[in-house]
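User: I'm new to structure prediction. If I give you an amino acid sequence, what do you actually give back? Let's try with this one:
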Amino acid sequence: MATSSPTQQATKKVLILAYYWPPSGGSGVQRWLKFVKYLRVYGWEPVVITPKHGTAPYYDDTLLRDVPEGVKVYKTDTFEPFELYNRLQGKKKDAPIPVGTVGIKDPKTIFQKVANYIRANLFIPDARRGWRKYAVEAAKQAIAENPEICVMATTGPPHSVHLAGLDIKKMSGLPWVADLRDPWTNIFYNKELPRTESTKRRDKALEDSVLKAADVVTVTSWGTGQEFENRAREIQVIFNGFDEDDIYTGALAPADYFRLAHVGNFFPFYDSPGLWQAIAELTRENADFARYFRLSFTGVTDAVILQKLYDAGLREWVENNAPVPHHEATRKMFEAAMLLFVIPNDGSKGVIAGKTFEYLASGTSILTVGDPQANVSQILTEQKRLAVIDYNDTLALKAALLQTFEAWLSGGRITRKFPDSVTGSPYSRKALTGRLAAIFDRIKK
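Assistant: Good question. You get back a string of structure tokens that encode the predicted 3D arrangement of the chain. For your 445 residues, that looks like this:
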């Protein structure tokens, strides 16, 4: 349920440029949707600019419930290269776009190779740059109609949104918070694109121009902040967090299966060969484990990962579920016997995935696979969850799985919960919005 009544009149307004907005689904929507939900609590009225028909990985109409009543949302036209891409492939122009490296890594056709080259070298920094001029025109209108606007915020990816912010900054002089939810030039999929050296230099120049002009740059992890240090005026880390309203708290009944669940998209750089081997060995060695175990994915799971699991002989234990509305995703986190969290093995150990805090708030045990030195490892360790285990440490992974499985089986097949304190947590969306509002208060015009 959306919070804060429109009768709470805020005298301060913040102009927010967000490409992803409900009914767009996926992790890119959550952060600023939740900020907008709670900003009125801290005396700020949000004014949002977003495209009418932006492309997204999938859609979730239920997220519209979190938009507070009366919030002004300016919806603009946009130019979308992905519409042409879809038409050339015989799809509807508004078909969901590929997620992550889908269609980028190992392109199968000449068309895909050409499309990847164009995407990599013509659309800099990204294929959403066609929204820039429309966002700027809408901002002019919004500023004229809302003289109380005294701060601006932009959020990316897509990082081309920040270029619109740069234009608006030059035009209006508004104090500007540029929120970089992920790295820019070093974002994971750029490593898979056939970018020329000239393209890399141009993109770096755009990144530098935004970092230099923004009054404050906000990021979601310490690692991302370190990537931008010495290039930005000021950097503040504001984690993604969880919304107490989203945390499912129903009664738990005995489950039919012990589900090790991953909720969210699962990319090739999450590959965990040691874990797949550990599961395969346990299904051979332990009859109860073979009977009750399921590896459950909910979201977009890359075909490369599924094939590796099938090659490991795990086909009958794999559940591959399509993306679900956000409230259903958090329920799956709560009901799972154990949650799977994989730290990317692509070198981006400074990124903290958005689902980290929802995993923690669910109270469910977490099996974390990856680099113990990654940023997220510190947070998970602080919360007294299982130790972070290396991708290839099959023995340790088997032990962690078996320990939790035996506790589940002996406990009547009911998930054991950690006694986490959700209320008052510094990782709640409401508390984190307070930190953002304090930045607005400090820099407002």
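You can read the tokens as a compact description of the fold. Here is one thing that stands out. The chain has a mean pLDDT of 90.
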